């Protein structure tokens, strides 16, 4: 069995990415390890008084993201694929690579979308970073 790391960001591309990862997992008898990395600064805001921290904002956001992860995990399991999920806060690239190493992953599945500069528009900045840094193969799924 191949362990597959599937980072998700809950963007509009997540459904297509999950669909591609499930197809890949079925073809390889793989298990999907779903991960979402939330930024460390979720509860911070800048206002007239400078930086302020609102723990209730962070707690609510984390709770919503966990619900979304659980929903995606249940969709994957319903398709006959073994799956578990994890939510962590921090630097996405570092956490994903650490998780992949811990789970002895055979692949990391990423999407080909991004939000800045022309290369990133087609590949995605996190995808670009992981393809450069990862000792584990990164399977890039086109998101259109």
Automatic annotation (TrEMBL):
Q: Which InterPro entries match?
A: Rossmann-like_a/b/a_fold, Universal_stress_UspA, UspA
What is this protein called in UniProt?
UspA domain-containing protein
Superkingdom per UniProt: Bacteria
Q: Name one Pfam family in it.
A: Usp
Q: What family does the Swiss-Prot or TrEMBL record give for this protein?
A: Belongs to the universal stress protein A family.
Which N-terminal residues, if any, form the signal peptide?
none
Record-annotated UspA domain positions: 3-142
Q: Which organism is it from?
A: Chryseobacterium salivictor
